[in-house]
Design brief:
The complex is a heterodimer of chains A (about 700) and B (about 90).
Chain A lengths: L7 H31 L4 H22 L5 H6 L6 H12 L2 H14 L4 H25 L4 H9 L2 H34 L3 H51 L4 H21 L1 H22 L1 H21 L4 H13 L4 H13 L19 H22 L3 H4 L8 H19 L2 H16 L9 H9 L4 E3 L13 E3 L3 H9 L4 H39 L5 H24 L5 H25 L5 H22 L1 H8 L20 H18 L5 H10 L8
Antiparallel strand pairs in A: 1-2
Helix pairs in contact in A: 1-9, 1-21, 2-9, 2-21, 4-9, 4-17, 5-18, 5-20, 5-21, 6-15, 6-17, 7-8, 8-9, 8-21, 8-22, 8-23, 8-24, 9-10, 9-18, 9-20, 9-21, 9-22, 10-18, 11-14, 12-13, 15-23, 18-20, 20-21, 21-22, 23-24, 23-26, 24-25, 24-26
Chain B lengths: L1 H33 L7 E2 L2 E2 H31 L8
Antiparallel strand pairs in B: 1-2
Helix pairs in contact in B: 1-2
Classes of the chains: A mainly alpha (about 700), B mainly alpha (about 90).
Chain lengths: ~700, ~90
């Protein structure tokens, strides 16, 4: 299917035909399932069919494009047209975090969530202007390849391999974790089994055909994920506004949400609920100061109450009440401490409702200033990280020419944009629904989807009548971000088959990203480490085979780590961006734009950038700090520089990388003539014609 | 010698357009981002800063990349460094 065509233009038109046919087939499949559902097919079957169909499809493409040729295995034969490379990059780029997490983050964070929207798109400007065309002209296989050739010697290449593996591995663990979650949700199988099922889908594809298979699968996955994302949002928009283009009209819904926010802030019932949470939190915090004493005091008081009730010959009901209070008291101090910790955390729910559209909210100018600083810093780290993640940059090696590489960045961003400019509208539409259809409703009259989700997963949605007035207050709703995407089909009143489709879309997003990342890691090891550094005489066959074996090993390792359910997945993903940004971006751009940059300087710069980023994260992020220094997570965080959150640690690493490379280059001998010629060559699409 | 002069000119033009586009990118992202609180006038229903973060800047990013690709492809031809047909 992907090899018969001869000329590039025949190849392009064949591809268009294949994917149009495929899209049509997919839509027919969904419609057939919908009909089957209407005729009474059980829901769990729909889940199984979606899972089986999509994984078989990806595996099928993998088998059809299996290859052992190095050029095809590493860079898809360098004949991927710009449009399709754009789609493949889109799928490669958009992970479970983009598909499921982003709209949820926007729902919970309002304006502050836009840092991800801008960061993960604006970075493509850097890719287009500073890297993609030059890397394509250079035309090797991997990012360490470029570092090795540009900076000479094994050291820069080796440092490159280390950084590529460090950031790709953290990222791939998060993806496989996402695969496990979605498979579990789709079919109800156990989490670990879900991980390995999904892994099968990833492996058949990348194992058999490398970059070639991954590229064509990613195009297929992009189509599924974008259809799955759009249908529910468009439908919800039609229901709420009568206009099928949510992105164009949600500004007005946002106004209504903003008006409602003010009402909710002033509402006395809301104030009452927030007050209950605040006092609960205060009591919890107070009790935690001396848990042993608090526990003993609390128990003694209840004992005394009971004794007093009995001694005073109080009515039967009062005695019963005192007994019940005593029975409900935590069994031991540990249980009490757990309860108080939970109560203390309720402080978050005592806060005023967030104003969705307000930039940098804060109680005073200082807090607002810190929020702004962190927003801008995070945007920068995500942007530069985008322009430094090897699995994305590698994609621009696969186009047929420099010209196509440039066009392909435009297409990449366009396809990513389709989802990214929809996510904020989805968040607002869902918020509108919650504020208008759930808040203020009697508990007995809640919409069906609310009851369903409360039953399915209380961590995503739980509503408890805290002030016992029988009416839902906003402060009584505890919501997890992931529900925004997952529940939209039900909120919009669509059949279950669309919920299955959304899960399949999330799966496609996670699998496609995992594919690209695994390939990057395996190639760094087999091509860069083994072939370029250990055994330059290895045959192509041997390299490709080795790459395949490594792929398997890395995938299983990542799955094992993911099965441990490491804490703080979102932090892991963002950490990968900061690390890549600080490690690669200075060395890559200076390598192209400054002939004087030397090898030793680049190696030191990469190490310094990653080093300081890693150091800052490890000392200021509670979870990492516990891992490396054994400091308990609850201990206050010290050593924060300029109020910058650990998630944006790259803010220190990026400039340091640049400074080190420039300073060290100036005191070391200039690169050789060959290297300078190579840089010159990379800057022009075709020098021979000039 | 002539060829190398032309080459330098090509590279200079490339750097100029890159710099101009990066300035635009910076203004869209960081200048508007910095003053986001003050730029909350109504823009077709959205507060302006929110609209820029959620949609406007994204569209402009695409335009920047599209324009750069177009400009450079023309520059390649003008300076005779374009690639031949496959």
């Amino acid at each position: 299917m992907f090899q018969e065509a001869k000329s590039q233009s025949a190849f392009v038109s064949q591809l268009k035909k294949v994917y149009t046919f495929y899209t049509g087939g997919f839509i027919v499949f969904v419609i057939l399932l919908g009909i089957a559902e209407a005729m009474g097919m059980p829901r769990v079957w729909i889940g199984y069919l979606f899972l089986a169909m999509t994984i078989l499809l990806y595996a099928g493409i993998g088998i059809m494009s299996r290859t052992n040729i190095a050029d095809e295995y590493y860079v898809a034969g360098r004949r991927v047209p710009a449009l399709f490379n754009g789609m493949a990059t889109g799928a490669d780029w958009m992970s479970a975090a983009s598909f499921i997490g982003m709209a949820g983050g926007l729902y919970l964070g309002g304006y502050s969530g836009l840092a991800f929207i801008m960061g993960w798109t604006g970075g493509y400007c850097l890719v287009a202007l500073f890297l993609a065309p030059y890397l394509r002209k250079f035309g090797q296989f991997t990012i360490p390849d470029f570092l090795g050739a540009r900076y000479g010697g094994h050291l820069p290449r080796f440092v490159g391999i280390l950084i590529a593996i460090l950031c790709s591995f953290t990222y791939v663990v998060a993806q496989i974790y996402g695969v496990g979650l979605i498979t579990t949700r789709l079919t109800g199988v156990e989490f670990t089994l879900g991980i390995f099922l999904g892994l099968g889908g990833i492996l058949v594809c990348s194992f058999l055909g490398g970059m070639k298979a991954v590229t064509w699968t990613q195009v297929a996955q992009y189509i599924i994920l974008i259809i799955a994302y759009m249908i529910p949002v468009v439908w919800l928009s039609v229901k709420q506004t009568g206009v099928p283009i949510p992105q164009a009209v949600y500004g007005y819904q946002l106004q209504k949400v903003t008006a409602k926010e003010q009402l909710l802030i002033d509402d006395p019932k809301e104030k009452e609920v927030r007050g209950i949470f605040a006092s609960r939190a205060a009591t919890g915090a107070e009790s935690l100061k001396d848990p042993a004493k608090s526990y003993a005091d609390g128990k003694a008081k209840l004992d005394a109450d009971l004794a007093k009730a009995k001694a005073d010959n109080a009515p039967e009901a009062d005695v019963k009440k005192a007994e019940a209070a005593l029975a409900a008291y935590p069994k031991d101090q540990a249980a009490a401490t757990a309860q108080w910790t939970k109560d203390r955390a309720a402080a978050g729910r005592a806060a005023l409702p967030l104003r969705h559209a307000e930039a940098f909210p804060g109680k005073d100018d200082k807090a607002r200033d810190i929020a702004r600083k962190n927003f801008l810093a995070l945007t920068l780290c995500l942007m530069v990280g985008t322009a430094a993640l090897p699995h994305i940059l590698m994609r621009y090696y696969t186009t047929p020419s420099v010209k196509e590489a440039r066009a392909s960045v435009t297409w990449s961003l366009f396809f990513i944009f389709l989802l990214y400019f929809t996510a904020p509208s989805l968040a607002v539409l869902v918020k509108y629904t919650i504020y208008h259809d759930v808040v203020g409703t009697a508990f007995s009259a809640l919409p069906a989807w609310v009851k369903n989700w409360q039953a399915v997963d209380p961590s995503l949605l739980s509503i408890v009548d805290v002030n016992k007035d029988g009416i839902v207050q906003l402060a009584e709703i505890a919501i997890g971000g992931d529900i925004v995407v997952l529940a939209t089909p039900e909120i919009a009143g669509l059949p279950y088959v669309i919920s299955g489709l959304v899960a399949a879309g999330g799966l496609a997003a996670a699998l496609s990203t995992a594919d690209g990342l695994l390939l990057t890691i395996a190639n760094a090891l087999s091509h860069d480490l083994y072939y370029m550094m250990i055994d330059p005489n290895a045959t192509t066959q041997r390299r490709v085979t080795l790459s395949k074996i490594l792929l398997l090993v890395v995938a299983v390792l990542a799955a094992l780590v993911a099965a441990q359910k490491p804490a703080d997945i979102l932090f892991l993903v963002s950490a990968a961006f900061s690390l890549a940004a600080a490690g690669f971006f200075p060395a890559l751009t200076l390598g192209i734009f400054w002939k004087r940059a030397t090898g030793i300087a680049a190696s030191l710069g990469m190490l310094a950038g990653v080093g300081i980023t890693f150091y800052y994260m490890a000392t200021t992020q509670p979870w990492l700090r516990e891992m490396f220094f054994g400091t308990p997570r609850s201990a206050p965080v010290t050593g924060i520089w300029w109020d910058i959150q650990p998630i944006s640690a790259g803010l220190f690493g990026i400039p340091l990388g640049f400074i080190v490379i420039v300073l060290v280059s100036l005191v070391t001998p200039a690169p050789s003539k060959e290297v300078q010629d190579m840089v010159e060559d990379v800057r022009y699409p075709n020098l021979k014609a000039a | 010698m002539e060829a190398s002069e032309k080459r330098k000119e090509y590279w200079k033009k490339n750097l100029t357009i890159t710099a101009i586009l990066m300035v635009i990118w910076f203004v869209i992202t960081y200048v508007i981002g910095y003053y986001a609180r003050d730029l909350s006038f109504n823009f077709f229903g959205w507060p302006f800063a929110f609209y820029m973060g959620a949609q406007g800047s994204l569209i402009l990013y695409i335009v920047i990349i599209w324009f750069y690709a177009r400009y450079m492809n023309n520059l390649d031809i003008e300076y005779g460094v374009q690639e031949g047909e496959e």
